[in-house]
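Supplementary Methods S3. Complex input for the NAI-bound model.
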Amino acid sequence: MSARLDIIGAGAFGTALAITYAQAGHEVTLWAREGAAAMQAMRENVRRLPGHTFPEGLRVTGDLSDLTAECALLALPTQTLGAFLAGTPLSARTLISCAKGIDVATGLGPTGLIARHTVAMPAQLTGPSFAVDIAAGLPTALTLACADDDTGAVLQTRLSTPHLRLYRTTDVIGAELGGALKNVIAIAAGAVIGAGYGDSARAALMTRGLAEMTRIAVEAGAQDATLTGLSGLGDLILTCGSDKSRNFRYGLALARGKTLGDDLTIEGLHTAREIAVRYGEEMPIAAAVAALADGRADVAHIAEMLFNRPLKAE
Ligand SMILES: NC(=O)C1=CN([C@@H]2O[C@H](COP(=O)(O)OP(=O)(O)OC[C@H]3O[C@@H](n4cnc5c(N)ncnc54)[C@H](O)[C@@H]3O)[C@@H](O)[C@H]2O)C=CC1
Ligand SMILES: O=C(CO)COP(=O)(O)O
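Predicted complex, serialized as structure tokens:
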């Protein structure tokens, strides 16, 4: 059944979702902070998602008053979400965040920010999916998390397409933290590969990384099974194993003493710093990523430190 959908944020992911939902027959309005008129005229987001032509049914606007659908997807980087929601009156009754991070100013995840700043029902769309894969119509499975299962079921049906299969959960904390924390591990995986430690070391890091992710998430109230679902393990496998991931590429560059452009959204960097401050010793991989990114340690030193910790039972 076709519906009207608003998508807020015309980065790579918002644009990819707008393309796929318009292709599936929905009437989509994509809001862009900058360059809306050019995108609408050229029928392409040349800057963030080049090579994917907009289908009919996708309209780009820079005017917030054009956002009138009852359901809106928020595809903004986590660190910009709080200020955006605080300063922008939105009429949608349901707001679904696609961001994967923790807001460093408040320690909240995206649904916590939605609940703090709006009266809309918050939900989270997360899981393994590169924007370019979604835009190309490749088969993808994601998690739709909403604390209210009836709303979740409606959204699951509305937002699934022939190429995009949604599973649903009421464990919003688990889904949200899985998406945020896997980015931190992906930076570490990039550093492991960049330093030349090899695939066996990456497998060890991913496995121990998942243990760290699960420990924090369960402490915060998540169900541990959520962390082995699409939003946790699924996304961990994708981003730790592919250089399409910006977090992975960032770690790769760090280990090689290089930098990436300033304009890239590296969610795991902010999340690593926040987690390192909040959990410290309990989260050795996240603390190591923060130390590496902030120039307080190099990869060899971190590897030695991680390997020389007291031996433990698995
Ligand atoms: N790119 C991908 O493959 C995927 C991204 N995500 C998540 O989606 C979120 C957005 O990522 P991308 O679209 O990839 O980022 P991006 O870097 O491609 O684009 C970010 C967009 O946000 C806009 N923006 C930044 N600050 C803003 C503000 N204050 N107000 C309004 N707009 C603002 C920028 O103009 C830009 O269009 C992130 O949390 C990311 O983890 C999730 C799944 C896949
Ligand atoms: O979350 C993603 C894939 O699921 C995108 O990962 P990056 O932000 O590392 O590119």
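The chain is about 50% helix and 15% strand. Residues 100, 128-130, 183, 186, 235, 238-239, 245-247, 267 surround 1,3-dihydroxyacetonephosphate (ligand 2) (CB under 6 Å).
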